[in-house]
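To: structure desk
From: M.T.
Subject: fold request, one chain
Message: Could you run this one when you get a chance? Sequence is below, nothing fancy, just the single chain.
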Amino acid sequence: MEWTDEAIVLSARRHGETSAIVTLITPHHGVHAALARGGAGKRGQGLYQPGNRVCAHWRGRLAEHLGTLTSEMVTATAAALLDCPLKLAALSAACAVCEQALPERQPHGPVFDGLSALLAVIGNANGGGNWPSAYVKWELGVLAELGFGLDLGSCAATGVVENLTYVSPRSGRAVSDEAAQPYRERLLALPAFLLYRGAAGDHREVTAGLKLTGYFLEKCVFSHYSRSLPPARIRLAERWRGETGKEELHNNTTV
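Reply: Done. Structure tokens follow.
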């Protein structure tokens, strides 16, 4: 059996001296691992960097076998971000979330399309300033695709659609500012940019967004695999909180 599909590299792990076990996400075959001969060699290491877009050809005797992989480069996303540690952290986090959250070999076209769009925004040197907001929205999309979408359209307590400022950690539904007052310490902040298509958040709002999506990814997705958030996703949140602190310090010293 064999197939050819467009793909995004999620990870590559050395196998033997020169080969690698490469994990991809494809629109038609889902998250798929395979043996890439020479994948740990000089050429293969450049090809199979997380985030790179490739044309992948898989071949195996039976569909359930690991099989072998050959690929051709389409877009070298990772190489373009070597001088941008925070963007690289976001790329690594997105790839890790895909690899560990999605069931293997089950197509999830919307996640693939969303990841493609996210990587394009991250890699856009001229117009990529909104990539942190795009990242948070992409994680919301992953939750929705896996059946754990958050209901941010109206207040869980009153049904109103205005002044939605919190999310219930229990139900994943929005809560208005007025209804949240008696127990807001137990709720998760809902950054306003998540309520509007095309909107972007500031540093503090993105921090809240990462906390929100991270909470529900861990609770609804990774808990079923008896694991926490991927280390790469944890590092992204930590790096972003550090950037938020720098931004606030800069604002305070320039006022």
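Reply (cont.): Helices lie at 42-47, 85-101, 109-122, 131-145, 177-180, 203-221, 231-254. Let me know if you need anything else for the meeting.
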